[in-house]
Amino acid sequence: MKKISRKEYVSMYGPTTGDKVRLGDTDLILEVEHDYTTYGEEIKFGGGKTIRDGMGQTNSPSSHELDLVITNALIVDYTGIYKADIGIKNGKIHGIGKAGNKDLQDGVCNRLCVGPATEALAGEGLIVTAGGIDTHIHFISPQQIPTAFASGITTMIGGGTGPADGTNATTITPGRWNLKEML
């Protein structure tokens, strides 16, 4: 089997066990604790890649196949930091682990069968984490953010620039200068 460098592997399939990932422009560093994919059997969509008939995809439809597979995602949740494929069926997470063609590939989870009707979404280089969305936030103070995180909210959509009458009444951000002054 051909060996590739760690740098090439990460560029194609995302980070693996032991790799470190910086979160944006912060000093927060994640370390991948486990990789559920099987080296050499990773699934990936695209020209010359493995999600195709007779490789990482079964050749006939079945009731077991996923509706969507997110490949090689870096997952951060209460169980740890790991890389895996995520299978979606009927709009819900059906399984997390190694997806593919269990008839031909080693280590494929029974619940993560990729078939002809499975859509693929590249998760390489992306971080997937659970969290709620607050779609109506008035940004009145910076203290709202850690409070939201503590309750499971990871995404806030809204506006405002602090304890001003406009922010208290609406969720619109008044302008660049106001936003800069708030931060």
Automatic annotation (TrEMBL):
Subcellular location: Cytoplasm
One annotated Gene Ontology cellular component of this protein: cytoplasm
Keyword Hydrolase attached: yes
Domain annotation Urease: ranges: 131-183
Keywords: Cytoplasm, Hydrolase, Metal-binding, Nickel
Pathway stated in the Swiss-Prot or TrEMBL entry: Nitrogen metabolism; urea degradation; CO(2) and NH(3) from urea (urease route): step 1/1
GO molecular function, one term: nickel cation binding
Entry cofactors: Ni cation
PROSITE patterns given in the database record: UREASE_1 (PS01120), UREASE_3 (PS51368)
Annotated EC: 3.5.1.5
PANTHER family referenced in this protein's UniProt entry, alphabetically: UREASE
Protein name: urease
Origin species: uncultured Helicobacter sp
